[in-house]
Amino acid sequence: MVFANSRYDLSTPVFDDWVERMMGTLVQFRREVHANPELSFREIATTERLMNRLREAGMNPVACEGTGCYVDIGSGPFAVALRADIDALPIVEQTGLPYASTVPGVMHACGHDIHQTVMLGVALALHELNEKTPLGRSVRILFQPAEEQLPGGAVQMISQGLLKDIPRAFALHCDPKVDLGQIGTRIGAITSASDTIKIHLSGHGGHTSRPHLTEDLIYAMSQIAVQVPAVLTRRTDVRSGVLVAWG
Predict the structure, then answer these.
(1) Cis bond before residue 151 (omega within 30° of 0)
(2) Distance CA 238, CA 243 (A)
(3) So what's the pLDDT on residue 6?
(4) Alpha-carbon gap, residue 131 to 38, rounded angstroms
(5) How far is CA 5 from CA 8, 9, 117, 138, in A?
(6) Quick check: helix, strand or coil at residue 196?
(7) H-helix or E-strand spanning residue 75
(8) d(Cα 108, Cα 123) in Å, to the nearest integer?
(9) What is the distance between the alpha carbons of residues 229 and 14, in angstroms, rounded to a whole number?
(10) Taking each helix axis from N to C terminus, what angle separates 112-132 and 13-35, rounded to the nearest 10 degrees?
(11) What pLDDT score was predicted for residue 10?
């Protein structure tokens, strides 16, 4: 990442030195986040933790409506926005880790503890660099709530005008298919978006010895489960990446 009028080159040791100096702090932050997960639109302590750490570094974070926050670094027109999500999932953690979730039935199972830690590190690094030599442009760091819920926090942040005048934005997500130390991008979609399908069946019950006098909802459910995905392949291009999964 190189900005106009900046003198920073990612090939120089300055970034390696910064990472080595800050790694312990960021690992500790991530473990604290992991031990204290919060569900979508309930990330109150998570937001406050991020804002406190940004303030301690001399930045001026702004709380969003509800939960989540953002901070602007640098001056002048925006070069880019960088976004990380911060919510957890309603899953029981069974890892046995010393920093495992302390919240019953909630855990960071999708990596959002990592995402917000990485983005916090990016904010701290950019701020430190900007203090030494101005970046020449502005960067907006977004900590988005409710990525795991639809409609989610992205819609909320956009409606608050947080992408106004932003020429480009990048969202961060860890991926076990990408080797450590590498960043993966592509033209077009790289991850899926989801919608929820709910199907309600109703009918007269009865004794299984007289199925002809009842509506057999179990059979109907099984047909829907099998046939809807099959029908989908006849209504959409099989190369389009559309998937129906029952959960």
Answers:
(1) yes
(2) 9
(3) 43
(4) 33
(5) 9, 12, 28, 12
(6) coil
(7) none
(8) 22
(9) 52
(10) 140
(11) 52
The amino acid at 55: R
Copy the structure tokens of residue 139.
């960067």
The whole-angstrom separation of Cα 79 and Cα 72 is 11
CB atoms inside a 10 Å sphere around CB 17: 10
Are 85 and 147 contacting, i.e. CB atoms less than 8 angstroms apart? yes
Pick the closest to residue 6 from 118, 119, 116, 125 (CA basis): 125
Q: How many residues does the chain have?
A: 247
Q: From CA 129, how far away is CA 14, in angstroms rounded?
A: 10
Instruction: Give the model's pLDDT for residue 15.
Output: 76
How far is residue 28's CA from residue 105's CA, in Å, rounded to a whole number?
23
H helices of 183-243, in order, are 217-235
Please say whether the beta carbons of 37 and 103 come within 8 A: yes
Dist. CA 37–CA 89, nearest whole Å = 8
Euclidean distance between CA atoms 70 and 140, whole angstroms: 7
In this prediction, residue 12 carries a pLDDT of: 61
Mean residue pLDDT of the chain comes to 90
Tell me the β-bridge partners of 72.
Answer: 140
Tell me the per-residue pLDDT of 63-119, one tens digit each, with 9 for 90 and over. Answer: 999 999 999 999 999 999 999 999 999 999 999 999 999 999 999 999 999 999 999
In contact, 65 and 44? CB cutoff 8 Å: no
Residue given tokens 């057999």 in the structure block: 216
Take residue 235 and report the two structure tokens written for it.
Answer: 């209504």
Distance CA 93, CA 9 (A): 41
Residues 6+ apart with CB under 8 A from 198: none
DSSP class of residue 52?
H
